[in-house]
Each structure stands twice: as structure tokens, then as C-alpha cells.
Amino acid sequence: MLADKYDHVREQIMSACRASERAPDSVRLLAVSKTRSADEIRQLYACGPNAFGENYLQEALDKIEALQDLPLEWHFIGPIQSNKTRPIAEHFDWVHSVDRLKIAKRLSEQRPAHRAPLNICLQVNISEEASKSGCAPDELPALARAVAALPNLQLRGLMAIPEAEPDPERQRATFARVRTLLTALQAELPRLDTLSMGMSGDLDAAIAEGATIVRIGTALFGPRPSPNSTSHSPA
Ligand SMILES: *Cc1c(COP(=O)(O)O)cnc(C)c1O
To answer: What totals of helices (H) and strands (E) does the chain contain, helices first?
Structure first.
């Protein structure tokens, strides 16, 4: 079951790469495992994926602990409260949802010395009316410059969660704006190499516009339980 869904997602990523003449290995799959059990992650890992994305801190820490025996890469992709940065700095490999300097400074200070620098994407609020998370596009250059200067972080690029939009052309137009923002930053910060964009409903458009990481939950694991049936607070 999981294996079939995974094969289907892999095929979709590869055909989107072919359609835009991109190398198939230029797009990484991040399996978004929020609300999924450690056992489900174990099963999916057996099919191939080794990078998992989590939104809720306590839930994530429990799974990281339970899956210590596997060589998994953990990505934090949810909202971050400044008093919860330490466990994120200690237990994750990537954070995609940094949208203010205060959070980045704390992650840098709290990153354990024995661990590689924490990979960071800045979350940009690309559909500004729809969401309160993410840095405003015009504040991005100053934030990127400041985050790139922090010692225990490696600034990798941008993350965006556009407003849900069924029309593929409009999806592409929004992702193209994210790509343009990254290109502008690369003039000053040439090591930036990551566009984290595209979810189950818009991954083709994201890949057409240069996504290097797609964050896929539903298409891999099936629909999540409705938000009302479980209670989650932001990290
Ligand atoms: C839940 C979530 C995803 C995955 O969404 P699907 O539509 O289930 O693929 C991707 N990114 C973020 C930030 C999420 O919270």
C-alpha cells in the first residue's frame, strides 16, 4: 500500500522532471509524516525515502527517539515558538520554517558543537493575504544576510506554502515568484541551492518552477485525520 503510493509519487516527480528537462535527481522527496506513527515511517523508509518532515515538536521528538536505529534525516517544517528552539537545534538536520532573526539566532546558539551546521530555509509569505507565517518578500534580503552570517547554521534557500490553488498556471505563477526571490538572493549569497516548495496538490507546478525539495504527505500516506480529531499546538 505505502509502496504503491511511494512508486506513484516517484513516477510523478520523474515525469515532472522530464517535462521540464530537469535531471531526475535534482528534486528530493521529503516525506511529510506529521500525524503518522513511527511504524508507518519505518514502513515507508523500507521503500526508499530517508528524509522525513514534521510539524509538531513533541510528536516529532517521540518519533525521532523511537526511530534512532534508522539513518533518517529529520526536517522541521512547522511554526516555531522561540521558547521551543533548543530541541529543534538538537534533534533536526534541517529547519524549513525560519521566518525571523530571533529564531535563527537561537537555533545557531543552541546547535550542539558536535553536530554539522543546521540547514536552514527561510519561509517566505508568498500569498501574503492568506497566511501569517513567513517573512514578507521585501524583508527577505536583510533576513537572509543576517542568517547567513550566523555560525552554526547553513542557509540553504527558501520555503513557501502558497495558498491552495487548483489552477496549475496560477500555481506556477506563484512558484515562479519564489524562484525569482531565490535568484535575487543568490547574487549576494551564491551558495543558496534550495527551493522547498510543492506539496501533494501542486508538486508538478513546483518542479516546473525549480523546486529542489518537494514536501509530500497525503500522496504518500493517504489523507490525514481531520484537524478536529487531534489537538496540536504549534511547536
Ligand atoms: C502538511 C504539510 C505538507 C504536506 O502536505 P500534503 O498536502 O499532505 O502533501 C507540506 N508542507 C508543510 C509545511 C506541511 O505542513
So the answer is: 9, 8
109 occurs within a structural domain: yes
Residue from 29, 121, 163, 199 whose mutation best tests the ligand 1 pocket (most atoms within 8 A of CB):
199
For ligand 1, atom 4, the nearest C-alpha belongs to 217
Residue type, position 196, single letter: S
Q: What is the pTM of this model?
A: 0.95
* Ligand 1 first shell, C-beta below 6 A: 32, 34, 55, 77, 161, 199-201, 215-219
Domain limits at 21? 2-222
Domain count, the chain: 1
- Tell whether 232 is covered by a domain: no
CA 31 / ligand 1 centre spacing (Å): 9
pLDDT per residue as tens digits for the range 34-64: 999 999 999 999 999 999 999 999 999 999 9
CATH code of the domain in which 60 resides: 3.20.20.10
- Secondary structure element (H or E) that encloses residue 232, with its range: none
Do 77 and 96 touch, CB atoms closer than 8 A? yes
